[in-house]
Specification:
Elements (H helix, E strand, L loop, with lengths): L1 E3 L1 H13 L6 E8 L5 E8 L6 E6 L2 E6 L3 H4 L2 E6 L6 E5 L12 E2 L1
Parallel strand pairs: 1-6, 2-5
Antiparallel strand pairs: 2-3, 3-8, 4-5, 6-7
């Protein structure tokens, strides 16, 4: 369903190891908002919620909110070190358009 590149896995592992709060995985969901109607939301999580699907990518647990599942099928998440804005990027084959920042789509 969702794939994390090696760079994204390393970024999540680094964030988890340096987090002040306990974290066992990365929660990803889609919410209404952003430039194109939907936006990606993600953050470290201590444990999955009852309505999450748990996926494992190279030893990193990813918690996907069930209502977000259809919006994320086939998505590849990468972590890019760019001069202007390092961070996570989303390659989502179900998106029909996305904004220039890459965090919002429709």
């Amino acid at each position: 369903m969702i794939k994390l590149t090696d760079s994204a896995v390393n970024a999540v592992r680094g964030a988890m190891s340096s987090s002040a709060q306990p974290a066992s995985g990365l929660r990803i969901m889609v919410e209404a908002g952003g430039c194109n109607g939907l936006k990606y939301m993600m953050g470290l999580a201590e444990e999955p919620k009852p309505d999450d699907t748990v996926i494992e990518c190279d030893g990193v647990k990813v918690f996907v909110h069930n209502k977000s599942h259809d919006h994320l099928v086939g998505t590849t998440i990468d972590f890019v070190m760019a001069l202007e804005s390092p961070g996570f990027t989303f390659n989502n084959p179900t998106a029909t358009s996305s904004c220039s920042c890459g965090k919002s789509f429709s």
